Protein 1
Amino acid sequence: MAALARAGFDDYVVYENDGTWTFAGGSLATVTLDATHVRVRSVVESDTEWSGSPGAALRAALDSLPVPGWRAYGSVHFGFSGLLPGLGLRGVAAPAGDLVRLLVPRTEVTIAGGEVTIRGEEQDRVREILREPMTGAAPRPRPIDVRVDGAGYRERVAQAIKEIRQGQYQKVILSRSVRIPFAADLVATYEVGRRGNTPARSFLMRLGGAEAAGFSPEVIVTVSPDGAVATQPLAGTRAFGRGADEDAAARTDLESNPKEIFEHAVSVRTAQEELRRVCRPESVRVGDFMGVKERGSVQHLASLVCGDLAEGRTAWDALEAVFPAVTASGIPKRESLDAIARMDEARRLYSGAVLAASHDGSLDAALVLRAVYQEAGVTWLRAGAGIVADSTPEREFEETCEKLSSVAPFVVPA
């Protein structure tokens, strides 16, 4: 995947999903969506004003492509939430710029179980790249201090705790950015970082001048061709990777801590409510309640919420129902989004999604966390923590440091 990413494709997405790795390079078609228009750039081009459901607008644009059997890969910014019915904030301007960018690739390479499948153009070139031996010295990351801006973040957390105790909302995720003082080689960062992480999904991409590499701990939603839907909220966090005894003690604390259990339980309840909007209500169920998932430098409480799409509903409806992820926004969502708009800087891709979608109705969307971002000469990390009534500013700041440590040790200078 790294070799293909270095091969000179203008735009590309690498997506790892449960042992299957896909490289999507070059643009056979691009679909973008902003607050008012959905645009298609392909053999046939269009610029269409949309209203109502942004997911329906995206589905119609993709279905209009003169590309049989299309598959699309790309990104959804956190600001997409402001376009969703019921989540738009009064007095807040619609987010500017493209909020969704999807690539239907000219060249698609899938590697699963040692089998390589190549679709589209440049197949001979791809085979040559894959035959090249891996040579050269291992990339050398540069240390990054993740403990900056502690006072500013603690002040915002304290304000959120005050608002929660006043009854304005139950939970909110507040985040902070860490500026990296050098340009990063994101391909090398992805190579090194993937070896040091155990993600639910991983991704590496360059789309429209923006780059990102990440090791997503959580799936926002998956939809199979037959309409089976799943989301897996992760809420409740402790450090991991500090030695067997410390990890075991942290896990015991995680599984018995009232604040962490409450934070997780309300997230699972919200996920159930969201799936019932688009699934047959009787099909919505919870599996593996409050299991523990180890994700790089942290461990989380995790539950799987599943259902079956109701008649007439699509994968894009399911994405709208659960977006933004409850574990990256808060409860209730509208009130927590208001708090995020007041207390967080613009998130852009952070806590949005990287996704793969197909003509067969399937969709797989990973939550964009534990990532490094690079755009317009600026490189940064970002992490957040879930604030509830029993939170403390010091502990939530420490949680952001633990999460940042899933990526910070692996950033390789350009």
Protein 2
Amino acid sequence: MKLPADVPWLNDAGALALCAALEGAGFQALFVGGCVRNAVLGVQASDIDIATDATPDQVQQVCKGAGFKTIPTGVDHGTLTVVIGGKPYEVTTFRNDVETDGRRAVVAFSTDVTEDARRRDFTMNALYARADGTLVDPLGGLPDALARRVVFIDDAAARIREDYLRILRFFRFSAWYADPAHGFDANALAAIADHLDGLAQLSAERVGAEMTKLLGAPDPAPAVAVMERVGVLPQVLTGAQARWLAPLIHAESMLDLSPDPMRRLAVLGGEDVADRLRLSRADARKLAVLRELAGTGEGAAELGYRHGRNVALDVIALRSAVFETPVHVDDAAAAVRGDVARFPVAARDLMPALHGPELGAKLKELEARWIASDFKLTRAQLLG
């Protein structure tokens, strides 16, 4: 099978030049991973990864001769970043795992693409392609990819024990790429249920990054629901519940909202979420604001006025999901109206008659009246 000729990375000048340089020196150069999987699925890919039988030293020599810059981003694991025309390309030597402990692996370089494929996680991720678009499928994973089935390579339990993050990756890839009509692979779920304790070995940073990617999928609700049923969700987010995620996805569609992991984390709930997932300060702050505002009585217009259109729409969607109420178009319009409204009274308008706490209290009173009027009261009416 050949990939369509219009796949963008098959026409990427830098990638083709890199493959030509490696092949010209007598080495293999195969596109691998996400770019190939996404091309098979008809999904756009952002990163271009290349696998080769050349060792890192040999890759460096080839690139030096071709005038390409190399950066040793993961040289101990066989990975170099090659920069061509200002664009980075990851080149990794074929590998096999010598030793694993559930978090990291000791690898040995290989010249066998089948060995390299067997150390990967899912069959759909073990696809390679030559520079002319010809697919290389060492493990026969193409049918799974075409059917959108997320299946572990060989023995699911063995793959999980090599890296327990693969439990979360299974659900992330299911959310992004699986066909819901197929359900979830039974062997994978059984192996996951048997290895829940391994999740405790993972760093908060790795778990947080994986959960954020999962919740950024167009509709992660089925995957998260199964995560809860097999016991994964309680392990990574104590107290979280999946029950309101599907209603939130529906509310998002009604409000034309793009996927947002923090909005979705807010509806899952849970204890110490920011710490458990090691969220950035900005994400932790956004999560806290959304969770707090979802339980307040501020209307859509006031939310838009005080917190901006985006936060207001997020809160409207959250409330719709949790309180099982329909989304009203009027609420979205009110949030936008509040976002552009500007309170017409300033402190100087009340001075010098009022000052200090009295001035602040009067401003709050007038602002509340103005908001209650749907921002219609004028400055003269408020001060009259």
Protein 3
Amino acid sequence: MNHSIRTATSHDLPAAARTLSVAFADYPWTRWTIPDDDYAHRLEELQSLYLSHAIEHGLVLVDAHGRGAVAVLPSSAPPLADDLQRQVRELHGDRLEALLAADLPAHPMPSWELATLGVRPEARGAGLGSALVDAVVAEVGRLDPGCTIALETSDDRNVRLYEGRGFFVTAHTSTADGPAVHSMQRTLPATS
């Protein structure tokens, strides 16, 4: 199937945040790190904050039909601004301590972080997730040939998706009372 994927702008942010919040509704990591109280709203707000940072300092791609989105950030991107950090802390509420205690391995330096990728449930199984991965890998490879792209996932189905796109598992991390996290990466060719 042919998918129409393009670079997002700030105008795409609300729809992309909604798409990602629907895509992550039952995701183990977000279920563990976001309180149940008003979970859907918190999740959409967090996605919006992270996407706005990625649009400014990295790259966000969206499906032209609003069914999927992906965001990457270079390791040179600044941390979230203080106001955004405050909002993130508030949205994580009483789960913030667990989130901060997760001891995930550092990404290789320098690298790009595939920070989020989501596809609406009704659009899954048609190759859109793979198309989003391929599109973001191609664009990052054009911007930064020879770089490494790193990510984490808490869903075994995602591991298979990323392995099918050339990524490999570099670590498995257990959390105290939450999901296991798979760290993955892929080094791109030095020439695009």
Protein 4
Amino acid sequence: MASEDVVGKTSATIANLAEEAKIASEGVKAPSRHALLSICKSLVAGGVAGGVSRTAVAPLERLKILLQVQNPHAIKYNGTIQGLKYIWRTEGFRGLFKGNGTNCARIVPNSAVKFFSYEEASKGILWLYRQQPGNGMPDAELTPVLRLGAGACAGIIAMSATYPMDLVRGRLTVQTDKSPSQYRGIAHALGTVLREEGPRALYKGWLPSVIGVIPYVGLNFAVYESLKDWLIKSRPFGLVEDTELSVTTKLACGAVAGTMGQTVAYPFDVVRRRMQMVGWKHAASVVTADGKSALEYTGMLDAFRKTVRYEGFGALYKGLVPNSVKVVPSIAIAFVSYEMVKDLLGVEMRISD
């Protein structure tokens, strides 16, 4: 009789453990599926934001690159209006959007990774910050400096992951109908660069990109989030009546963030783009009359030195005007598109959460 009681109790214990394990297993799976779905939605929102914002300003993006790398001894583009008119006259409407397909193929995954990385980096940095004594845990919030760090991490990860596409985009954007040899598309360009210049060529200009992306993306996120927080908390001039900013106000925050970030980082973007053209003997716009490339650099510092020495300090800001015209709506549209798509997809977490 005693043995039967023991067996019965043992069986009941095993059944209870099995039931608890089942409940625990289901409890783990549900949040995991929910988290995975949330990640996918966040990536989609970031990708859509990047594609929409870049397509909207594609003509200005192309003109900026052409101004950055054009031969100083054979000037074709003298300014924003003249440059756009010249492209329209010589290449037609399609010329204004040349390279935009490649740009979207790059910017969609880049933007998706960037926004998602920022959110994850923000959570990680905030967690570490709250572990430090004297930071007011668990109520501590991200400071502008911490947001700068999270944005820098996000920019480096996204840029590094898609850099070969950026190099190819730059070359497809620069080539014209008069280029001696034509890249026929993304795959052909990647294959040609690998075959003629080697795998390392796909990362030409990576170092100035890394250095430049820290203040650029970092300031974008830090200024955007800090402005939003300040407006919500202080409600200056009666602009904010509740805790939710209007689309117009968000656009203004994004515009300010984009202007500050691109002004600080722009010289690195010029050097990066010039280094990407080194070794491309068929780039018509950067080749001199005797067939020699006007862009020959041994590294980042050499590119800075030669650019300033032969063209003056102002050359580091070539294309700044069309880029300024472009970057304000581009960054603003990207931030607003991202939050709107996340709202449509039902993602609970916003950038600033």
